[in-house]
Write a structure and sequence with these properties.
By secondary structure, this protein is mainly β. It has four domains: 86 residues, no CATH class; 92 residues, Phage tail protein beta-alpha-beta fold; 68 residues, no CATH class; 63 residues, no CATH class. The chain is 13% helix and 41% strand. It has five helices and 24 strands. Strands 1, 2, 3, 4, 5, 6, 7, 15, 16, 21, 22, 23 and 24 form a 13-stranded mixed β-sheet that branches. A four-stranded mixed β-sheet has the order 19-18-17-20, covered by helices on one side. Helix 3 runs antiparallel to helix 4. The radius of gyration is 23 Å and the shape is globular. It starts with 10 loop residues before the first strand and ends with a strand. This is Prophage tail endopeptidase domain-containing protein. It comes from [Ruminococcus] lactaris.
């Protein structure tokens, strides 16, 4: 998707968040949201400006998720280029761990959704991240956070369960000398009935329909020899997982999952997650004009050659700025099971 972003759309700040101006020096930029959630940009060596590009400096496009903090600088004298890398705001959430309170098995959350999101984020980012005060009208009841997961995984699981997605924006208030990252829970938008990308015109669609996935998972847990805990899980015709075989004979594709010391209940819980990641899937990547999608929004992709339709949420956005000055955003869509 061509979004009309110019190099100078990005702004730089010092480590304290005070603006240093637009980044007209950028030659190329690649910013990933949703997968590695990091960025890499290059400038000519003669354009080096320590105030704009030092460690801890922020780069961002106002009121969007595009942005992050510099933590990696590489100078290439042969090419007379400097490569600057860092984590995006979403990427920073991947490097915080949510632990259960002392003496408890799990962290349990209750309250209005944004308030609960604020409890999860807390003061982990020294005042850089704030959670919106907007009342979502959604009440979280006894939500159990998985043990020792990343903050991003904890937030994503929570919001998904309440049919919401994570919105991230870099905000520049008029009455402050510095900006901040605002995170909030917002409703998932389903564009699948309105928008179906099929590769016509300037749209580029890649659809993959993988049918060689595992459909029988033998889960091995605690115990020894004949006392070993064993759970058999089977993919059903509709993609759900059950205890009765559906695919048999030449259509059966089996694998073993070892989770030492897991009891039957735990083994089944984690075995189902494992099988979900191994079974058949469809994937779709789209590059298209005239769209503004966010991670978590639903869209459809269609390939007329193979007559394959994919309806799934956006899981990744990649912003690319080329040396020519053109900018594109590529969306990657999670595939149907």
């Amino acid at each position: 998707m061509r979004v009309g972003l110019a190099n100078h759309s990005f702004i730089s700040t010092n480590p304290n968040g005070q603006e240093n101006g637009y980044l007209k020096e950028i030659r190329e930029l690649d910013m990933d949201l949703g997968d590695t959630s990091d960025f890499e940009l290059s400038i000519n060596s003669k354009s080096w400006d320590a105030e704009k590009f030092s460690y801890g400096c922020r780069i961002f496009i106002p009121d969007t998720e595009y942005g992050g903090i510099i933590d990696d600088i590489e100078s290439n004298t042969s090419k007379k280029r400097i490569i600057i890398r860092g984590k995006t705001w979403r990427g920073m959430l991947m490097y915080k761990i949510v632990e259960p309170p002392e003496g408890q098995d799990h962290l349990i959350l209750n309250g209005e959704l944004n308030q609960v999101l604020g409890d999860l984020v807390g003061d982990r980012f020294d005042g850089l991240f704030f959670v919106a005060k907007t009342d979502t009208g959604i009440t979280v009841k006894n939500w159990e956070v998985s043990r020792y997961v990343t903050l991003l995984d904890a937030v994503t699981a929570l919001l998904s369960a309440y049919k919401s997605r994570l919105q991230i924006q870099y905000i520049e208030p008029e009455n402050l000398d510095y900006g901040y990252v605002e995170v909030s829970a917002v409703p998932i938008r389903d564009y699948s009935d309105e928008i179906e990308y099929s590769g016509e015109g300037e749209v580029r669609v890649t659809v993959r329909d993988y049918r060689g996935g595992v459909n029988h998972l033998v889960c091995i847990g605690e115990g020894e020899n004949i006392e070993r805990t064993v759970v058999h899980l089977y993919v059903q015709k509709d993609g759900t997982i059950g205890k009765t075989p559906y695919y048999v004979g030449k259509d059966e594709i089996s694998s073993v999952y070892n989770y030492t010391n897991a009891d039957a209940e735990t083994l089944e819980e984690y075995g189902m997650k494992r099988l979900e990641s191994l079974q058949n899937y469809k994937t779709c990547s789209i590059t298209v004009n005239d769209a503004d999608l966010d991670i978590g929004d639903f869209v459809s992709g269609y390939d007329a050659v193979t007559d394959t339709t994919v309806k799934k949420p956006v899981i990744q956005k990649i912003l690319k700025v080329k040396s020519s000055g053109t900018s594109t955003v590529e969306y990657k869509i999670e595939g149907d099971d």
